[in-house]
Amino acid sequence: MWKGVLDLLEAAGKLKRIRRAGWVEVGVQEPESVAEHSYRTALLAMILADLQGLDAEKAVRMALLHDLAEAEVGDLTPEEKGAKGQAHILEEDEAMDRLLSPLPEPLSARYSSLWRELRCAASPEAEMVTQADKLEMCIQALEYKRESFDPSRLNRFLKIEGRGLPKELLKEVIERNKDRNNNKSDPDSK
Questions:
Q1: Model pTM?
Q2: Among residues of the chain, what percentage have pLDDT more than 90?
Q3: How does DSSP assign 90-114, residue by residue?
Q4: Is it true that domain 2-189 has CATH number 2.20.70.10?
Q5: Where are the alpha helices (DSSP H) in 15-55?
């Protein structure tokens, strides 16, 4: 039993060393890791689920699982995933089976079921976690922009589709980013 648990934790530990491929591709120096992204996505999913009256525990579990397969298959950009097509989906599904199957029952079945539900966007929680994942990326792009990274290279990360609170939250993040940029040029704000 504990061997499977430890194996999963070691796999998850790899995510701390895997840099997010999109940020690497556009030249961000010392970009966030997949684990860093996953943590804030889980926190955001918890908050959004609570605000929207969804099952926060379920949402957080999905968010914690959402990038776990990348411990084995790596982090790919959307373009790389598209080029691989169905093969990428199959690789991730097989990786999750390998990672989760050594866990004791009923955990293995429960986490596998949550993974499949997330992949299929088969519940309001799954749809929201998908939005939280994209919104977290937008927030990170705005943070890189504030750190003086070339904003033109970040535009592709600032697009989010969806409805409801996540767009409203993104609007607030963008407004806050504008306010901070304006304050940087104001010598009295220092």
A1: 0.89
A2: 71
A3: HHHHHHHHHHHTTSPTTHHHHHHHH
A4: no
A5: 21-26, 34-52
